[in-house]
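ok trying again, last paste got cut off:
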Amino acid sequence: MRMIKKLLIVAMLVGIIMMPGNLIYGQSYPSSPATMIVAWAPGGVADTVARALAESTRSHFGQPIVVQDIPGAGGAQGAYQLIKSKPDGYTMIFTTASLVTQPHFENVPYKPLEDFITVLQVSAYPVLMVVRADSPFNTYK
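nice, full thing came through this time. structure:
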């Protein structure tokens, strides 16, 4: 129940952030359903949280956010779908830190710091790289 309360608070904050632009420009956003790509498999934690977030924003925005699961390649498949989409504010991605870490492990068709803009952080967790104490590696470089 605590998670749902947090998601509702986050959804309200998103609405407050979006409101000034609507008032200044006199435009209604969104005027049609939006798509939220989840770069992970259906039924997992990311999918479940994304669906709860999408549902909690529906009454505020007046339009649904449709969750579309595109798993594969450690999240890179979903990111690639976003890169190919029209940059009109109606397609977004719900992903994890893998969006930034994946390019360090394999070639991906995107540059995370140039091709994406973070809109909302839903949760945080530490990401660590660990090696044996007797290994020759002491730093990331």
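cool. Strands lie at 34-38, 65-69, 91-94. Helices lie at 2-25, 45-61, 76-84, 98-101, 112-115.
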